[in-house]
Amino acid sequence: xxxxxxxxxxxxxxxxxxxxxxxxxxxxxxxxxxxxxxxxxxxxxxxxxxxxxxxxxxxxxxxxxxxxxxxxxxxxxxxxxxxxxxxxxxxxxxxxxxxxxxxxxxxxxxxxxxxxxxxxxxxxxxxxxxxxxxxxxxxxxxxxxxxxxxxxxxxxxxxxxxxxxxxxxxxxxxxxxxxxxxxxxxxxxxxxxxxxxxxxxxxxxxxxxxxxxxxxxxxxxxxxxxxxxxxxxxxxxxxxxxxxxxxxxxxxxxxxxxxxxxxxxxxxxxxxxxxxxxxxxxxxxxxxxxxxxxxxxxxxxxxxx
Length: 305
Fold this sequence. Notes:
Strands 15, 16, 17, 18 and 19 form a five-stranded antiparallel beta sheet that branches. Strands 1-2-3-4 form a four-stranded antiparallel beta sheet, with no helix packed on it. Strands 11, 12, 13 and 14 form a four-stranded antiparallel beta sheet that branches. The chain starts with 24 loop residues before the first strand and ends with a strand. The protein has 305 residues and is mainly β. 2% of the residues lie in helices and 39% in strands. It has one helix at 107-113, and strands at 25-29, 34-43, 46-54, 64-65, 75-77, 82-84, 87-93, 96-99, 125-128, 131-133, 163-164, 169-172, 175-182, 190-196, 204-206, 211-214, 224-242, 263-268, 286-302. It has one helix and 19 strands.
């Protein structure tokens, strides 16, 4: 009841099928209304991620393996999948991607930096990916590029040297923090804090010549559209709302939208008639973004506070 004094429910383990030599992430999912656990398994001799669910944390469903998302199967350690605090229906993960036999450090360098002899550390390397899910077997590796690279420290270029801690924490109005363990296996093993802007994991970017993005049809609730964006002094963006056939809706065209310039975590989009979009709520629309020398990180429909 107080979060300090705990009682053991049973002696027996509750999940037994899997490879549990790395972190296993269990949490209550508000969007799925059940407990969820992501943990490691072996498939085709490669480390992968499975998922099981429970209503009471004692009885768990048979595990299911996450989808490949049309991408190649890779060794993924320490999945670190958890609800993103700013949008709990979206789960984010920072799995370590492991490359056995992919060597960077020479014998001389390994001797100089004191690379552990156990498990042949010198022969492997790792980096960290960004993955997403919305529950079930849904699993996206939209970008196979590393989210966090090993960097210039040679001790991060040997086996199992880079591991993300579970969780992302908003440590300021314009800052999210994530924590990475580096130099694993060395006396210099440590945690490093990395920061990004809220929702700033990826962006739609256009250069000075400009570019456009048009969304798939969607419906929304709320009365205004807010964006998380950053532009140069010479850049900016405009927003247009369209019907499902791609025809601009009167009053919400690009010509009606004053250019949006600056760098804001949350900025309401307005047109000549104002920012109110409540008349379109519940109706299928598309959003067209015209972007010049700017990044668009996230969009959100909401009710004005």
